[in-house]
Task: inverse folding
């Protein structure tokens, strides 16, 4: 029994340490946001959902016995998520700010308020824990699924700029620790969502390995087919009469990719020059 509790505490403690690193892993991303003074390209929804999840797990820990390790890590996650959201709002565009406030109202105000009503007034006795457990498990899955928005962006852009490897690595390791914690503690609400978290974490690391060195696409400009003439004609010797018959053309790509179009402006200028030369010669 003592050995079992030691393993539970050990995995829970490792889960706390690694989860703290998961919470801190977006720091390089937010450093770039502060440095560039723009949050363009980044989404706030993972941090809004992470904040909601931390609130739910803290609420769950109040009714569940012997959950000090859940309280510590989710308290840390709660405050870090608030910090990230504040920084994001400081540098977000007006459109992104409005979207973030809508998400906060939806999840963290109305959503959490609805959970409180369901558990405190509709559920009775030990059912508080069951109802909260199911809700926490569903939203823990949402926390793991939230980075799929970034995964979609990575596949579309073939760039891992918005998916730090450190976050994916520690997320996978954290999911593994919490799975064993929930399994040994016989808490299905902790164990089950972390199975999905482990799988999705492996997926993110695989995508990082694939797209970490994006191929540089060279922009190839269409080459104009120009004819090089070997003979240079002295326009001064031709005179304005002959020059008027010269067709001056410029290369211009048509639908088929080549062709020439007559330049009337250039032709007129050449004719004027020849007239001026003719006048000078007569002086």
Result:
């Amino acid at each position: 029994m003592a050995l079992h509790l030691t393993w539970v505490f050990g995995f829970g403690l490792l889960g706390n340490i690694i989860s703290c690193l998961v919470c801190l892993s977006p720091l390089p991303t937010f450093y770039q946001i502060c440095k560039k003074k723009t949050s363009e390209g980044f989404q706030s929804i993972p941090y809004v959902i992470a904040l909601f999840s931390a609130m739910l797990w803290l609420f769950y820990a109040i009714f569940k016995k012997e959950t000090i390790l859940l309280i510590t890590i989710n308290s840390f996650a709660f405050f870090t998520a608030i910090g990230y959201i504040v920084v994001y709002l400081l540098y977000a565009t007006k459109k992104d700010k409005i979207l973030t406030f809508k998400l906060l109202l939806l999840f963290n105000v109305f959503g959490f308020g609805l959970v409180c009503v369901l558990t405190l007034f509709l559920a009775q006795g030990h059912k508080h824990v069951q109802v909260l457990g199911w809700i926490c498990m569903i939203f823990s899955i949402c926390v793991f699924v939230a980075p799929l928005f970034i995964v979609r962006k990575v596949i579309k852009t073939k760039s891992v700029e918005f998916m730090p490897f450190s976050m994916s690595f520690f997320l996978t390791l954290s999911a593994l620790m919490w799975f064993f914690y929930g399994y040994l503690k016989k808490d299905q609400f902790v164990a089950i969502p972390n199975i999905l978290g482990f799988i999705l974490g492996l997926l993110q690391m695989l995508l990082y390995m694939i797209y970490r060195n994006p191929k540089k696409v060279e922009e190839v400009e269409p080459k104009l087919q120009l004819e090089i003439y070997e003979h240079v004609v002295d326009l001064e010797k031709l005179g304005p009469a002959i020059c008027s018959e010269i067709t001056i053309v410029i290369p211009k790509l048509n639908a088929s990719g080549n062709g020439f179009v007559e330049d009337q402006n250039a032709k007129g200028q050449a004719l004027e020059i020849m007239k001026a030369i003719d006048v000078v010669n007569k002086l």
